[in-house]
Amino acid sequence: MKVKTLTLTLVPDRKVGTNASKLRGFFATRFNEYTLLHQHNCDKVIYMYPLVQYKILKGIPLVFGINEGVEILQEIFNKYEKNRVR
User: Can you give the pTM of this predicted structure?
Assistant: First the structure.
């Protein structure tokens, strides 16, 4: 069995605290249609190993995708890059 992983490293423009729940909250609010980002479905908690995880390591926010979580993070990243003003 192969496990797909993806780490999305964010580059903040200001100092980030150590509370990864705020990072999770941002993704859950901004991309609410992806239930794997917030583990809720119609106000019920989805009880399974989280396939998208949020970490802050040495002040760097990271979003880590596993298997189906990889596909969601890639989709979000591609949408963001496509619509990004340069």
Answer: 0.79
